[in-house]
Amino acid sequence: MLEKKMEGINTDKVIEEFEALTEDAGMVQRETLKKILEENGSAEYLLNSGLNGRTDPESFKSCVPLVTHKDLEAYIYRIADGDPSPILTGKPIPDMSLSSGTTQGRRKLVPFNDELMENTLQIYRTSFAFRNREFPLEKGKSLQFVYSSKPWKTKGGLGAGTATTNIFRNSKYKNGMKAIQFQCCSPDEVIFGPDFHQSLYCHLLCGLLFREEIQFVFSTFAHSILLAFRTFEQVWEELCNDIRDGELSSRVTAPSVRIAMSKLLKPSPELADLIYKKCSGLSNWYGLIPELFPNAKYIYGIMTGSMEPYLKKLRHYAGELPLMSADYGSSEGWVAANVNPKLPPELATFAVLPNIGYFEFIPLNNNAECLYMEPKPVGLTEVKIGEDYEIIVTTFAGLYRYRLGDVVRVMGFHNTTPELKFVCRRNLVLSINIDKNTEKDLQLSVEEAGKLLAEEKLEIVDFSSLVDVSTDPGHYVIFLEISGEPSEEVLRECCNCLDRSFVDPGYVGSRKVKAIGPLELRVVWRGTFQKILEHYLGLGTVVSQFKTPRCVGPMNSKVQQILCNNVAKTYFSTAF
Q1: Phi/psi of residue 291, each to 5°?
Q2: Is pLDDT above 80 for 544?
Q3: CB 396 within 8 A of CB 122
Q4: Alpha carbon separation from 93 to 40, 68, 76, 87, 97 (Å, rounded)
Q5: What is the CATH code of the structural domain delimited by 21-113+328-425?
Q6: What pLDDT, on a 0 to 100 scale, did the predictor assign at position 310?
Q7: Contact by Cβ (8 Å): 79, 158
Q8: SS3 145
Q9: Where would I find the beta strands (DSSP E) of 222-357?
Q10: Which of 135, 291, 333, 459 has its CB surrounded by the most CB atoms within 10 Å?
Q11: Alpha helix positions (H), 264-402
């Protein structure tokens, strides 16, 4: 039997600490707010709020306003530009995290400090302890499709990179990961390699070289895991040649990566033949991952929200291996850990850690008294099961009453802390008239159309949308990339199906009276969404942070251009 205590972490103790922490989450929240406000009391932002040293929740809520990133940009840029005075925090901010920019069309700078790193390790430890209780790992390695962005300095000399890059480069990261058996099979030179395509190829190669030792497969987002195995389908014979000859493919040109890989590669005809035989024996690549990595216990990454459309294909590659959703957070900071690892990603919930920040929730249920005035936020322990909320965070890194923009549903409680399900981004809405369709509504509509394609043994590779108001009346435009060539009849039916599947009463009513025009389906050429990924990589986003933009707004003109320039076929709905 495996011992519970492993190289620096006692999983039973971590679970006990979490149980104690959530026993009285309300009290922990008050203490956490007090700590944040005391540590940062000298910050200009808090001094100007009129708190005058008070640290109780009531004073905090009455003095400090709810804010978005736009409200804090001036403060953040002063820090980034080198202003040494305490602006948002008492201690200097050492680094800035860059968001991916896929949601809003532009990248945001947010503060990153040691406290956020500690939160990261606490979240990782907590979810690992619960995960390992259900799916114990043996000694080994993990296949991680992780990539670091090119680090750069702000005008004021602060380090800047993606949130994941800031974590990977932190001195505490490696020891923390070793303690929870999160050791990557690829050398650092591959993770920090200058070219994503070369790093991905080498990650796959390292996984094959250590195939017997791989305990799980990981990337930050499900999209990156899917992309990796779609790539494997294209390059598997080349990988087999590298293993057979002990020579790295000429496609990898980065000197640092070639040197690191040369230390691992030795001629191994037996391994090459084994992999070749296993791949040749698969039916349409079903069960590829457990076939390649026979000792893997699960596949792990963020699989909720905009990642859900990728789960069907990921399950195809995973065969019987469980998919497990990673924890809930954002570039701004962490919120909650997955302490119910047996739940499939579609049902995943996340228990809020009450000591990593101060959390408030704006009720989103539509009732008459809320139509003209936004409801007051409620505290962590005041939320109700089954209700939807927008989440507000106050962090140790200088964000106070910050609107994260996420909609969550309370599914239950773990002791006294809520277990949240991610629903959607609040600002990603298709709307022309009185209609309001969220990212989730779009996803459900596309899933219905996907069922028609599945009957033809085809699948949706990826999708996006926009609102076209250049026509009168305006109408929705859905972009689909499809794995093959459906018939005209099927595509026309897909278009009608998409239109009918938006069940928002405002949309249906507006369509019936022609206040919204017929939905337009634009089928794009294969590789279009890869071009969108390449666009974001060119802006400095790392692939493991990438999320396909689902609703492309006017700010995202370059993505609109890529989509519109790659349209192969167009159809208009006749559903209404």
Answers
A1: -70, -40
A2: no
A3: no
A4: 12, 19, 10, 9, 11
A5: 3.40.50.12780
A6: 87
A7: yes
A8: coil
A9: 298-302, 323-325, 328-330, 333-337, 350-352
A10: 333
A11: 269-280, 288-292, 311-318
- The interaxial angle of helices 528-538 and 557-564, nearest 10 deg, is 150
Q: Tell me how far the alpha carbon of residue 470 is from its chain's centroid.
A: 32
Sort 145 into a burial class: Cβ within 10 Å, 0-12 / 13-18 / 19+: buried
Quick one: how many helices (H) and strands (E) in the chain? 20, 24
Return the H-helix or E-strand segment holding 569: strand 567-572
| Helical (H) or strand (E) element with 9 | strand 9-10
Going by C-alpha positions, the residue among 129, 280, 289 that lies closest to residue 218 is 289
Distance (Å, whole) CA 515 – CA 473: 6
Confidence band for 245, pLDDT divided at 50, 70 and 90: very high
pLDDT value at residue 371: 46
Give the rounded distance of the alpha carbon of 479 from its chain centre.
22
* Segments making up each domain of the chain, as ranges: 21-113+328-425, 136-149+181-321, 439-572
Would you state the structure tokens that stand for residue 525, as one six-digit string? 């050429």
For tokens 């969108």, name the residue: 532
Q: Which residue has the tokens 């680090």?
A: 151
Tokens describing residue 181: 């058996």
Instruction: Please answer whether residues 121 and 167 qualify as being in contact, where contact means their C-beta atoms are separated by less than 8 angstroms.
Output: no
pLDDT tens per residue, range 385-431: 999 999 999 999 999 999 988 889 999 999 999 999 988 777 767 88
Annotate 236-250 with three-state secondary structure.
Answer: HHHHHHHHHHCCCCC
How many whole angstroms separate alpha carbon 138 and alpha carbon 2?
7
Angle at 137 between CA 133 and CA 139, to 5 degrees: 140
Helix runs in 107-221, H state only: 114-134, 163-169, 171-179, 188-191, 196-209
Report the 10 Å Cβ neighbour count for 171. 8
Sign of CA dihedral 176, 181, 182, 187: positive
Are 429 and 466 a contacting pair, CB within 8 Å? no
